[in-house]
Amino acid sequence: MVSIICVGIAVLDEIFAVAEIPARPGKYFASDYRSIGGGPASTAAVAAAAMGADTALWARVGEDGTGDRIIAELAGFGVDAGQVRRVAGARSGLSAVVVDAAGERLTINFADPALDTDPAWLPLAGVKEADAVLCDCRWPAGAEAVLRRARADGRIAVLDGDTTPDAAVKGLAPLASHVAFSQGGLQQFSGVADPETGLCIAEQRLEGWLCVTLGADGCMVIEDGVIQLVPGFRVEAIDTTGAGDVFHGAFAVALAERRTEMDAVRFAGAAAALKCTRFGGRSGIPGRSQVDRLLAID
């Protein structure tokens, strides 16, 4: 069994299913609802555990009832939450997620500025015991500390290169061995909207392996200046909430298992696609056997 350390944020998602995402103020009625944990690193950790990895999450939550729920749920999914720090006087993160009939979503996230950003408490000596680390961009100080330690210890270091208000991806991407950008994160890093051009710019600036996820269209990979599109798996999308996070968790597991990057992208894409076929955010994360079956029949 491979071991994965995920570093970043853990929140609670309040997910509402509606016919279409509202375009103006008013009162709207949901056809379904789910309250479940979320956040990039946290959901990636749940996905990694579902793929059979020994997974730990290093994160921060408030010393409140929401934090209690987040930690208890992580444990229920088989994630080691022993290094999820409770910050006194802070509120845990919360997201309101609206999902339309096509599975697309609108997310509003609250992150309490009172959550301590200092990573000095992290047990960095444990990085060398992991097969891979995965960091999101939502806790830049924690991600930087772990990515630097992973580089020093020769560990696989995956960055979820997503968009953030502070464009943290610019400082974190050079520290990772593998960067899987979102389209928004790649635009923040490169300064251009076109993903193919953005990847070319990123390759000129970075030493690590690079790709950008494209939702239902799959994943675009660049290696030695050559761009290749890895098509997505065609499924009926019910809820895309957390699909990118599932991709990153499964990708980190596949790399830790010493698969090639291209095989890891296919494995991660299958896991992300299957997640989209069920409503409820991370409650739709598939098991390892489901992913293997989809890969076998594709």
Question: Can you describe what's shown?
Answer:
33% of the residues lie in helices and 26% in strands. It has 298 residues and is an alpha/beta fold. It starts with a strand and ends with a helix. The model has no long low-confidence stretch (mean pLDDT 96).
What distinguishing features does this structure have?
33% helix; 13 strands; 9-stranded mixed sheet; 298 residues; UDP-N-acetylmuramoyl-L-alanine:D-glutamate ligase; alpha/beta
Strand order of the largest sheet: 5-4-1-8-9-10-11-12-13
Order of helices and strands: EEEHEHEEEEHEHEHHEEEHHH
**Anisotropy-based shape:** globular
Strand content: 25-35%
Number of strands: 13
Assign the CATH architecture: 3-Layer(aba) Sandwich
CA radius of gyration: 18 Å
**Integer tally of domains:** 1
Q: Which sheet architecture does the biggest sheet show?
A: 9 strands, mixed
Tally of individual helices? 9
Mean pLDDT: 96
Q: What would the CATH topology be?
A: UDP-N-acetylmuramoyl-L-alanine:D-glutamate ligase
Q: Report how far the terminal alpha carbons are from each other.
A: 26 Å
Unreliable parts: none
Give the full name of the CATH homologous superfamily.
Ribokinase
Helix content: 25-40%
Report the top-level CATH class: Alpha Beta
Structural class given helices, strands, pairing? alpha/beta
